[in-house]
Description:
Blueprint: H1 2-7, E1 14-20, E2 23-29, E3 35-36, E4 46-54, E5 56-61, E6 66-70, E7 73-77, E8 83-88, E9 93-100, H2 101-114, H3 122-131, E10 135-139, H4 142-151, H5 156-176, H6 179-182, H7 194-200, H8 208-215, H9 219-230, H10 234-252, H11 257-263, H12 269-280, H13 284-292
Antiparallel strand pairs: 1-2, 2-9, 3-8, 4-7, 4-9, 5-6, 5-8, 7-10
Amino acid sequence: MLEEFLREREGADTRWYPVMEGVMACSFSLKGEPMEGPDPVVEPQRFETLFCRGGGLTLERKDGRRLRVEGGGILLLSHGQALRGVRLDGGLRGVLVAVNAPAARESLAALCGLMGELRLDTGAVKRWMEQREGCGLLADVPWSRAVFGALDELDGLEQSRYCVWKAVELLYLLCQRSGWLDNERSFGGEEEPLGAYLEAHLEEKLTIEVLSRRFCLSPTALKLRFRQIYGQPIHTWLQRRRLERAAELLAATAMTVLQVAQAVGYDGVSQFNPAFRRQYGCTPTQYRKMSKSGGLHPLPQDGRP
């Protein structure tokens, strides 16, 4: 998917290298305004690994979720079946490794032979990617930090060779189900997604420290990963969702304004009322009167329904 997009922009800032049979690597640096990427397509047995060195790229899923990779992140793509669109920052730069699996089979077999007849369980990798609907993201783990630390010391062809080597190493780690990869499941895989957990605990005091322990991630990794997937900081998302829930309770129940505030995580009305007014343009009491009278509910101030 990204391979076709970069080939259309081949030039001084986009260099392709045929590192080995069936495996191409592209070192690139895009300039200019943000741009829409190619239409997502399904490409069986084609795999891409993007080592993002700067800028960013946002994938929009068909279910409305967004997945964003920024500098220091590694994006894995096996198909575009779950995607609706792609947006690339004008300053996006990095290395893309594109693999044609059938053509690369002998090359990978030769590498495995050098490692003492190492066997790669490609079925495990396929299942890992299917759990993420063809889009996997690794960021802010010791392995990826070490990769980019070494990558910054290389240039040109050597960057591409290094990234191909690391893409094969990542394939091996995925086959082994390394423990630090399991943390990624908390953002849309086998474990409870963070967004669903927040939805179910809006009335609680949800701090970064509490969430970090719950999802086995450092505070920095938690905040980065949440923004990559949900498109905004945790605090912003949480406040908006709490106030949306409050509006639902005001319209559908007889709870007092204080009870509604406490039900969505506020200690009292002194903080709740100003926050509600900023989002909806009216007080909680005015919102309730309008809903009871059959009037239209005020929209959030940004026009979001």
